[in-house]
Amino acid sequence: MTPRPRLPDADRHRLDALADKLAGLRRSNIGYPCNQDFDYSELAPFFAWSANNIGDPFGPSNYRLNTLEFERDVLADFARYAQAEEGNWWGYVTSGGTEGNMYGLYVARELHPDGICYFSEDTHYSVAKVLRLQHTRSIMLKSQANGEIDYTDLRETLRIHRDAPPIIFANIGTTMKGAIDNLATIRGILEDLAISQSYIHADAALSGMILPFVTEPQPWNFAAGADSISISGHKLLGSPLPCGVVLAKKRNVDRIARSIEYIGALDTTIAGSRSAFGPLFLWYRLRSLGLEGISEIVRRSMELAAFAESRLNEAGIPAWRHKNSVTVVFPRPPAALMEKWIIAPRRDIAHIITLPHVTEDVITEFVADYAKARSEK
Ligand SMILES: Cc1ncc(COP(=O)(O)O)c(C=O)c1O
């Protein structure tokens, strides 16, 4: 093998400085849903190979340096968590939640070329872009103050456009407020209006790995009426590289698959070359944690959310969260606070997301800083 080219000293120092910077920022990253509490070092030897999961995870591939076998295991686990119908699901490991949403909306558009996509104003910013890319007609609906879709607006708008099949983009945990659009209510509206052709995509970026592990989940999955679901891998489980899973009903996917001779595989995925490491990392995380380990992450995150909510309120900072949510919402803090803490404000609110690296110590320090910054304003 060609010897490793030597990194010049100046560049080595830059790498060292980057490592120091990232290590320092880990503690303050409290506003984005990325679990930082993991150890994948056992997988480091796998960076010796240019593995690639090009093509369909369930089909043959000419490119045999792959982790497709591991990817299929990961998908089977997620399909179980999302209550997909046995024998009628398909999916792949994506580059993240955005690609999964894009895939779901692609299937929906292929099935209903004249469809209109409905999504609430609290929907992730990337969805409007995906709809533009696909030339899918869409209507943004109002949200309720709690971040959930406004069902009255949905009902009225559907009634006006009864001639076009609806593609409902449902938020299963909005980015800012962790709100869940209730699939049972949405299906009830479709039934009331006697709409026979429709498609529901569930964007379960963070909550898709929470709801399977709580005792009273809101209706969110295939059993509740979703036709496709996107979940991020790097959010609740945590991973050094972004990844995710998308699942869809197999009979819908089969209608749009195409075979490509060059790769010897079905071209069912959005990306051509796909990371072989995303699936391997997810597989390692799922297998090493086991069901008990994942449930423990969810339980601990929920405990931390309750702690954060009550500490903030005790300090006079009105904070709240949805049932089964680890997104604790409060008024937008003074700008000075955001120099120390990595938080994501939008208009007049902000939040912290209590994944396990956001410990009681971190929360206590953040609340003290917030209370102080407020009193100095
Ligand atoms: C509700 C929601 N959907 C989609 C996304 C996009 O996911 P990703 O960053 O994995 O592409 C996010 C990211 O925060 C999100 O919160």
Write the layout of secondary structure elements.
Blueprint: H1 9-25, H2 68-81, E1 89-94, H3 97-111, E2 116-120, H4 126-134, E3 137-141, H5 151-160, E4 166-171, H6 183-192, E5 199-203, E6 228-232, H7 234-238, E7 244-249, H8 250-253, E8 259-260, E9 265-266, H9 277-314, E10 327-331, H10 337-340, E11 349-353, H11 360-376
Parallel strand pairs: 2-3, 2-4, 4-5, 5-6
Antiparallel strand pairs: 1-7, 6-7, 8-9, 10-11
Helix pairs in contact: 2-9, 3-4, 5-6, 9-11
Pyridoxal-5'-phosphate binds next to helix 3.
Structural notes for this entry:
The chain has 377 residues and is of the alpha/beta class. The protein folds into 2 domains: 120 residues, Aspartate Aminotransferase, domain 1; 240 residues, 3-Layer(aba) Sandwich (Aspartate Aminotransferase, domain 2). Helices cover 38% and strands 14% of the residues. It has a 7-stranded mixed beta sheet with strand order 1-7-6-5-4-2-3, sandwiched between helices. It is globular and about 55 Å long. The termini are far apart. The mean pLDDT is 95.
On the 0 to 100 scale, the average pLDDT is 95
Query: What gap, in angstroms, lies between the N and C termini?
Result: 61 Å
Largest sheet: 7 strands, mixed
Give the CATH superfamily of the largest domain.
Answer: Type I PLP-dependent aspartate aminotransferase-like (Major domain)
CATH topology-level fold name of the largest domain: Aspartate Aminotransferase, domain 2
Q: If classified by CATH, what would the architecture of the largest domain be?
A: 3-Layer(aba) Sandwich
Radius of gyration: 22 Å
Our estimate of the beta-strand percent is 5-15%
**What proportion of the residues is helical, as a percent range?**
25-40%
Question: What topology, given as strand order, has the largest sheet?
Answer: 1-7-6-5-4-2-3
Number of helices: 11
